[in-house]
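Input chain follows. Return structure tokens only.
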Amino acid sequence: MTPRAALAVRRPLMARTVELGAEVDLPRLAGQRGVLWQQNGAGFAGLGVAAKVRVGAGCLASAAVEVSELLASIEVRGPNRPVALGALPFSTSAQGELVVPEVLVRRQLDGATSLTVIGSKFDPDTMARLARWATGPSPRGEDPRPREYLVRPVTDVRRWCERVTEAASAVAAGHLDKVVLAREVAVVADRTIPVPEVARRLASAYRSCAVFAVDGFVGASPELLVAREAERVWSRPLAGTAPLNGPPGSDRESESWLLSSAKERQEHRLVADAVAAGLAPFCADLAVAEMPALVPVGTITHLGTPIEGRLADPRRSALELAAALHPTPAVAGTPTETALAHLAAAEGVDRGRYAGPVGWVDAEGDGEWAVAIRSAQLAGGRARLLSGVGIVAGSVAEAELLETELKLQPMLNAIVRP
């Protein structure tokens, strides 16, 4: 074990799985403080901590090895492998953690559901009680939703626009190729903002996005950082944005502009090229789409490039690949170190887990990791939201400000309800 990655686990551990045979509400089961990963109706909800790996500063790659060893050490009885889930900080110099839940409820794409419990001993009564809890109705009680909300900018808007202009000038002068600037908005409610309700609304409105919740950090990411299944690996980097005024496919003018805009295409190409270059050393072959596709998400559409490859070494886990790719130019800029230095000096905000890797990995190394955009950190009656835009030469502050507002709407719509 490396000195900066701390492993906390009760050994020996065993995973036991029972089929549930009934529908489950994953956001309800994850609750206010649990972990959730849901996409297209399938995913996980986890509670409790069977084991965890603390990820030290600059230590994500070695933590990936620790996670693999930890998961491999768990004795599996039943069809389902245990998983480690987490939402890691954007900054690689910050500390994070990955958790193996003590109780994990799964829902497959075909609707099959199961309950996995990880511990050192089991008894039938406990398993039966957990199964009843997983498949039971939501508890009745008073409506938990707040009645009043206050939405306010935390980042000074005028100063942020000045920073956009300064960043565009730095790019035009050749100091860097792209930099991503984020700004912060806060929501204050008169009661606790319910994480399960927010996650449920996101899952309903953005079914194809990866809906996640980790200890109150909740979101619906449209951007797949990397996924792995056996030897197959794939990614879909996003960059380039245009507003949509109607259903996907109906706003031809906006979509045509995005596909033909030299500025947006250049911003996207920087991201796609960097992700492809990051995956190439791990792959025996790698296919990158020649042209980006439109990826509509609510009231906006992005440019996305599908990338798919075959691993040269099947021992490389999804988490190890995520460590190699993060941060991409989609959320930091390029060249990476120059862009990060610019952010440290100019952005004026601690991103926390915003735009960091969020996802899961199992003992075989399979898993999915998204970029934690379209997200919010909830704590009681407060929500902290960030939204970022890519700045290149020719970026105009007013247009970039509008883009941040469009990107904030999914989370604001899910949080602020009368």
